[in-house]
Design brief:
This protein has 14 helices and twelve strands. Helices cover 55% and strands 17% of the residues. It has 420 residues and is an alpha+beta fold. The chain starts with a helix and ends with a helix.
Length: 420
């Protein structure tokens, strides 16, 4: 114990005699450690953010989209004026999936028609992303009303020209201070009365969930999108199905798949013309992407850390050269190779740990600034990051200091004392 304390004291004394050089070396390590921690923390924050967004869209949800639309977009149906013409799903599928005897694991079945039209109010215009759906959509998607109300079954049956707006849509169409509830906007050339405004939701992996216009599906089919399939049915963009419980999601997927295959008359060996996805499927896909992003960021930061380690090795080699006569003198009075090796290893480790500690402070400040700039990400330095910084610092000191320490310990005492 006494020997270790003495080694640290000698190491600090040696570093104190070359403050500028030691400071620049620790700066390089600090930058590397800070970069690793900040970027890894940022990647983890993005992963958590994505998970929260998927959980926020509703619980126990299963998504059904047309196979053609899925291939067009990769992750789900896009927003377009003619989006329903791509879909193989119809309102007949919605009725079939709502049959409790065919799909007993379903708690709610919500059809959705997505359209894109220009909305206007007193000269102001906005490209309206329309969601035509049913009244149950609000509870299934965990949305709440800020002002007014959502449309109900009477609006559905009456094909009433009413809409509910998101906060971004309100900001785009109405002047500040003007309440949209009760006002009439035009979508295309059709007037619609605003009956409610949704609470702010924020952006998700599917886009800005506040830049939306909601209306009864029957109204959209009657007033905006009257296209029908060859069988005379109304096409729908996607169908949301809520499972009765977590443990019935797999059963729900099987029931939905079987029902739609029967409805679409798909033969035993033929491919489905629809895609059934769960929240877990979508989350897994996005988590894989964010995981690769975190690894990529870590590798980029690791390069700067490697540069800092090489700088440490270079400084330690210079130190060994400058103290060659000292090493020879210590060996001449009885110091062993292990004593010289441990001395220089301790010096490099102390140098690295100081740099790692400084990097941890910089990382904390950096993640705090990121948290202030991007509050939704909630980036923070975790205890695992502190352990990572300590481990990295010690590892760098030992790994990059080992060769200079071995070189010092192997010096011949006579040659070292003659060194000029």
């Amino acid at each position: 114990m006494q020997s270790a304390v003495e080694s640290v004291r000698v190491a600090l004394s040696g570093l104190d005699s070359n403050r500028l050089r030691a400071g620049l070396t620790t700066l390089g390590i600090a930058i590397g450690v800070a970069a690793v921690i900040v970027l890894v923390s940022l990647g983890q924050a993005v992963q958590i953010f994505v998970e929260e967004q998927f959980l926020g869209i509703g619980t126990n949800l299963v998504f059904v989209v047309s196979e053609t639309m899925f291939n067009r977009s990769g992750t789900g149906p896009p927003d377009a004026a003619r989006v329903t013409t791509w879909s193989s799903l119809t309102d007949a599928d919605v009725h079939a999936l709502s049959d409790i005897f065919r799909v007993p694991s379903a708690l709610a079945v919500i059809p959705e028609v997505r359209l894109s039209r220009v909305a206007s109010f007193e000269g102001a215009e906005a490209r309206g992303r329309i969601r035509a759906t049913t009244p149950e959509y609000l509870s299934v998607r965990n949305r709440t009303i800020a002002v007014g109300r959502f449309f109900d079954e009477r609006d559905m049956l009456g094909k009433t020209r009413v809409v509910v707006l998101g906060q971004t849509t309100v900001a785009n169409l109405f002047p500040p201070g003007v309440s949209p509830v009760g006002e009439t906007i035009r979508i295309g050339n059709v007037p619609f009365r605003v009956i409610g405004v949704l609470d702010k939701y924020g952006g998700t992996s599917f886009g800005d969930e506040d830049d939306l216009i909601f209306m009864p599906m029957t109204t959209a089919q009657e007033r905006l999108e009257s296209a029908r399939t060859v069988t005379g049915r109304y096409p729908v963009t996607q169908i949301l199905i809520q499972a009765a419980s977590d443990d019935r999601i797999e059963a729900l997927v099987a029931e939905v798949t079987q029902t739609l295959r029967e409805e679409h008359n798909i033969a035993f060996r033929d491919e489905d013309d629809f895609v059934v996805m769960t929240q877990a499927d979508l989350l897994q896909s996005f988590s894989a992407i964010t995981g690769l992003l975190t690894i990529f960021l870590g590798v980029i930061a690791g390069i700067s850390l490697l540069v800092g380690g090489i700088g440490l090795m270079n400084i330690m080699l210079v130190t060994v050269t400058e103290r060659t006569r000292e090493i020879g003198l210590r060996k001449a009075v009885g110091a062993k190779r292990s004593d010289i090796l441990s001395q220089f290893l301790v010096e490099s480790t102390v140098l690295s740990v100081i740099g790692g500690t400084a990097g941890l402070v910089v990382a904390y400040l950096g993640t705090t600034l990121i948290g202030l700039a991007l509050p939704d990400l909630e980036a923070r330095v975790s205890l695992s990051s502190v352990a990572l910084a300590t481990t990295i610092s010690a590892t760098i000191g030992i790994f990059f200091g080992l060769y200079p320490a071995q070189r010092a310990s192997r010096l011949n005492p006579i040659d070292a004392l003659r060194f000029e």
